[in-house]
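for the writeup, i need someone to sanity check this before i put it in the appendix. the sequnce is what the collaborator sent (i think, or maybe the updated version? ugh). structure was predicted straight from it, no edits. if anything looks off just tell me and ill rerun, i have time this weekend
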Amino acid sequence: MGFVEDITDFIFVESEPERADIIFIPGGDQGGIAVTAAKLYLDGYAPCVLPSGRFSKPVGRCRIPGYEAQTEWDFLHDILMREGVPETAILKEKEATYTYENAIYSRKVTESLGLSIKKAILCPQACHARRALLYYKVCFPETEFLVCPTVTREISRDNWFLDGQKIDVVLKEMEKCGSQFHEILRKFGKQEEGKR
């Protein structure tokens, strides 16, 4: 069905990796995204990795077992280290509480370190790829992004439409791609209008 393919292509963004300036991990409680990032780092695709995240804003604390008093960054950092990424290659962002903040605070980190990010690899959950990409593009408008996602919660481009719970997750992502960009687009529109 064409509309299923359209939704799939919109949400499940994926690129072939290329050599880049950095690997971004947009937070979360799914360790597989850090495993993907580690593999890309070890394969020589980028010189550093920037995991981002404090905790989920609606929950108000880190909900990862064993990390309740810590942050998503600590969780992702520990996986990167376990997978063989050296401490010196792991950058730190421990303030973000939702995806837009992952991008905002990651930008602050790269700027504070004087990093020029011309090309970046983004390692989100597969079902979260489009929204994460849009936010990082807002905060890094001059950067080319390559999306190297990880299938988490068994939700993939091949099966999301076969199960009610998976459908709910993906359609919720569609809703968020619309509802969470009102303020950003209004600001963008005013900037564009000012250029005329």
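Helices lie at 2-11, 32-42, 72-82, 99-112, 129-139, 164-179, 182-195. The mean pLDDT is 95.
thx in advance!!
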